[in-house]
Amino acid sequence: MTSFDTIVNRYGTNSIKFDFAAERGKPNGLLPLWVADMDFSAPQEVLTDIQHAVAHGVFGYSEPKGDYYNAVTQWFATRFNYHVSANEIVLSPGVVFALAQIVRALTAPTDAVLIQTPVYYPFYSVIQENNRQLVTNPLVYVDGKYTIDFDDFEQKIINNKVKLFILCSPHNPVGRVWTRQELERLNEICTQHNVIIVSDEIHCDFVWSGHSHTCFGTLNENAIVATAPSKTFNLAGLQASNIFVKNADLRTKLKTEIHRSGYDQLNTLALVSCQSAYTKGALWLNELRTYLEGNISLVKDFLSIRLPEIKLIETQATYLLWLDFAAYQLTQAELDRKIIHDAKLWLNSGTMFGAEGEGFQRINIASPQSVIEQALQQLEQAFK
Predict the structure, then answer these.
(1) At what angle do helices 248-260 and 95-106 cross, to 10 degrees?
(2) What is the rounded CA–CA span in Å between residue 166 and residue 285?
(3) Cis peptide leading into residue 173 (ω within 30°)
(4) 118: cis peptide before it, omega within 30°?
(5) Measured between alpha carbons, how far is 384 from 380 in angstroms, rounded to an integer?
(6) Pairing relationship of beta strands 196-200 and 224-227 according to DSSP bridges
(7) Beta bridge partners of 227
(8) Per-residue confidence (pLDDT) for residue 378, from 0 to 100
């Protein structure tokens, strides 16, 4: 059994999370719980396979063969009843890279692309920095829960002639697992108005008890589904993602755009780690999920008893918790300063995810329990 209580020293490893406070305008000495990687070692089985590849000593150009594709397709078939074939997988070094290429491949400059805010901040950049029109369908926040305004969603599509919709499922940062009924309604609207759907499902393996993830590809074979082992197995730095594109025309356009970028083969160790993780990592993931649910319960109980003014939005998925500080009536700048200088924590400011994040902070709880306890104590000292 893996000990997730072990603290792994990540300082001095070129970790963005730990080693770049000064470069990112933060004071030294903050407890970092921001960027979405985990403070746990990857599964030992994966490490062993990587070590074998390293011991071989040759890192030439590599491409995946059948065993790689079997590992990926079996994972999604078994867990999400989503069946894809090897030729329907487009390889990418990361989901964000893939989203940018999808925007470029399937829309033209000034075309409208719709997202649901507050949302993972690279969604904004892949649209705006590629000279596309950003259209937002803000989620509705009532009584501590987020829902979709379907009337606004459809009207925005009509008014702006939206060509592409990027869905975050499960949603980062608000932690929603969209129900099948909600996804079906989105699909109906997009189909009626000929909107291409791209579903970023990178967090799909972290859906918590009482909820289940519906892969959008099971509702619409023309949808593009973006996945990666990076969040699930803490492999982000190795850079591998698998984009499922069943529609042959869309797949050809995407592959052509990727080829234009000069991108070719995946990192050799990325191929090894991805195949190994999807083949051998299930037991480790089960243990990790149990541990993370324990951390979520720890945060929930601590806040409800000792800091009830801070509202934890019901988290249905991901190890990224969305905290509502509205009761303190602070501006975002004031809240950020208090988190940094009084609580001495490095979290994600809510407005990184859009204007709708005003008064919120995102905290990453994928760390040993003792670290989360320390963070909560520092939060209490700052806000009591």
Answers:
(1) 110
(2) 27
(3) yes
(4) yes
(5) 6
(6) parallel
(7) 242
(8) 98
pLDDT digits (tens, 9 = 90+) for 117-155: 999 999 999 999 999 999 999 999 999 999 999 999 999
Residue with tokens 């964000």: 96
For 77-89, b where at least 16 C-beta lie within 10 A, e where not — what string? eeebebebeeebb
Burial class (CB in 10 A: 0-12, 13-18, 19+), 132: buried
Residue 58 makes CB contacts below 8 A (sequence gap 6+) with none
What domains, with CATH codes, occur in the chain? 16-43+282-383 (3.90.1150.10), 61-280 (3.40.640.10)
Give me the residue label for tokens 């490095």: 346
Token duo for residue 111: 């075309």
Quote the Cα angle for 43-47-48, to 5°. Answer: 115
Element (H, E) at 123: helix 122-128
Q: Which tokens in the block code for residue 49?
A: 């396979």
**What single letter denotes the amino acid at residue 164?**
L
Cβ-in-10-Å burial (0-12, 13-18, 19+) of 330 comes to middle
